[in-house]
Amino acid sequence: MPDYRLYCFAQSGNSYKVALMLALCGLDWEPATVDFFHGATRDPEWRAEVNAMGEAPVLDHAGKRLAQSGVILTYLSRRTGQFGPENEDEELEILRWFLFDNHKFTSYFATHRFMFSLAGKPADPAVLGFLRSRIDGALAIVEKHLADRPFIVGGRPTIADFSLAGYMFYPIAETGYDLAASHPNIHAWRERIAALPGWKPPYDLMPAAPPAT
Ligand SMILES: N[C@@H](CCC(=O)N[C@@H](CS)C(=O)NCC(=O)O)C(=O)O
């Protein structure tokens, strides 16, 4: 049995953050697919047994069960000694970007993508418009940050990159964002991440959940 078990699904960029870390660290892991589009994370039994917060990803390792991608990334970097901070300043900087990512970057980008292409029903244009305005603001902040540095923290790839990049590798038809055309620094950064040994895109790392019906 593999050392790590990740409750995940390929459409989940939050899961991809962790799957990518597991792959880049060369760890022995297996996915446990979450049937997200048919309500798995809202099922009271799933919440009681797997994650009371009703979210993927969840990682099982050595008798521990961990949720929240930022917590899991921190745990894995501590366990492996890879992609973590080298001092307290970097630790705080990574935490700062995790919080920004979870609140402003991933959250709006993922919600927009879900409504835009995955929900299985037409989205309200006003809601999409609002989300796009929030996303554009967050993308601009990351674009500027990456203007004069190769990675988010410390000049080398860290778990901060894997958090922020969670939704950066999905097809344009899914996200509605052509980042290569609109955000050259973000595009160059994701190319640097994609060049890391062991990198794979989300649909090659995790099984897809059956789509909404
Ligand atoms: N902050 C959480 C977000 C996790 C999250 O929102 N996961 C989505 C899938 S990508 C989910 O399970 N959502 C369930 C729901 O909102 O009902 C993390 O970083 O792990």
UniProtKB/TrEMBL annotation:
Transport keyword on record: no
PROSITE patterns: GST_CTER, GST_NTER
Stretches assigned to the GST C-terminal domain: 87-213
Stretches assigned to the GST N-terminal domain: 2-84
Manganese is among the record's keywords: no
Entry GO MF terms: transferase activity
Gene3D superfamilies: 1.20.1050.10, Glutaredoxin
Keywords, alphabetical: Transferase
Family annotation (PANTHER family): GLUTATHIONE S-TRANSFERASE-RELATED (PTHR44051), HYPOTHETICAL GLUTATHIONE S-TRANSFERASE LIKE PROTEIN (PTHR44051:SF2)
UniProt name for this protein: Glutathione S-transferase
